[in-house]
Amino acid sequence: MSARDTDWDGVRLHVVTGKGGTGKTTVAAALALALASGGKKVLLVEVEGRQGIAQLFDRPPLPYEEKKIAVAPGGGDVHALAIDPEEAMLEYLEMFYGLRRAGKALTKMGVIDFITTIAPGLRDVLLTGKTTESVRRKDPSGRRVYDAVVLDAPPTGRVVRFLNVTTEVADLARVGPIRTHADMVRGVVASPETAVHFVTLLEEMPVQETLDGIADLRAEGLPPGGVFINMVRPEILPEETLEAAGEDRLDLDELIVGLKAAGLTDDAEETARALAAEVAEHAHRTRLERRERQTLAKADRPRYELPLLADGVDLAGLYELADTIKAQGAA
């Protein structure tokens, strides 16, 4: 596979969403590492104020500035940005009105908080606007500053509204700089340069939310990306054993003989019963996960499977997930 032979050639904004608890931020961070590998420069952005990126990379809380936080496999840099709506508003006032000093005064008066509270759509314009500005930004030579931007977006249930900024601000400003800014954001978010990826587990609720989210994106003319199936457990037993366990046909006597042959003679019968119960549970979970894989296939989107890390997600685990993402062609 060449350096450019991936499923997402031409995509420069990777939006990552998923139901809470699926590992959305972890996958976004691993994807950023994978995209940066081989000498690229990638920006990883978060917008929910949780400082999840800093925690994953074992860094202090991120300020509102772009900071290098990791070196990717084979070279390449990952920078990170935690967007603060208040600071984004100040940038907006300076960019379109030259009013940064006035903006600071408004901040002290609490006016900016008031504005973003009564007009939540404007808040989303600010957050997505800063992200899309990073996508479009060029250095003095005319080259893009970042090869890709990864956005750790809000959960699946809110991501369409978050991204669909033009509709959100339509009643707020039909003309003028705010509307122009929103349309510029929409021009990036709804373009082939963007892909909205979903993170899920092989469980019924997150799988259904993923399918619903993809359908909602398509209905709004937004570009669905791939599906990252996270925390996948290996199928460790042969098919015939799984079938026997699922049908409650495991031979306890055979298990007892095997335990004794292995030197586990104490309470062999009780151990065999406990082992049979564990195997039956594994068989049940395996059947459910296979069913959910079939359900996800209905979305007709590229799918990538990431393993459940036995030791949890630390920095080494992030690099392991990045390698897996790269090997499957997602970066």
Task: Provide an overview of this structure.
The chain is α/β, with parallel strands linked by helices and 331 residues long. It folds into two domains: 13-233 and 308-327, Rossmann fold (3-Layer(aba) Sandwich); 239-283, no CATH class. The chain has helices at 24-36, 52-56, 85-97, 100-109, 111-118, 120-136, 156-163, 165-169, 177-189, 204-219, 239-246, 252-261, 268-297, 315-327, and strands at 13-18, 41-46, 67-71, 77-82, 148-152, 194-200, 224-232, 303-307. It has an eight-stranded mixed beta sheet with strand order 3-4-2-5-1-6-7-8, with helices on both faces. The mean pLDDT is 86.
The number of strands is 8
Helical run tally: 14
What is the name of the CATH superfamily of the largest domain?
P-loop containing nucleotide triphosphate hydrolases
**Strand-pairing-aware structural class:** alpha/beta
Strand/helix succession: EHEHEEHHHHEHHHEHEHHHEH
Q: Let me know the average pLDDT.
A: 86
Which term fits the overall shape?
elongated
- Name the beta content range: 5-15%
Gyration radius over CA? 24 Å
Helix content percent band:
40-55%
CATH class of the largest domain: Alpha Beta
CATH architecture tag of the largest domain: 3-Layer(aba) Sandwich
The figure for the number of domains is 2
Describe the sheet with the most strands: 8 strands, mixed
Poorly predicted residue ranges: none
Euclidean distance between termini CA atoms:
11 Å
Strand order of the largest sheet: 3-4-2-5-1-6-7-8
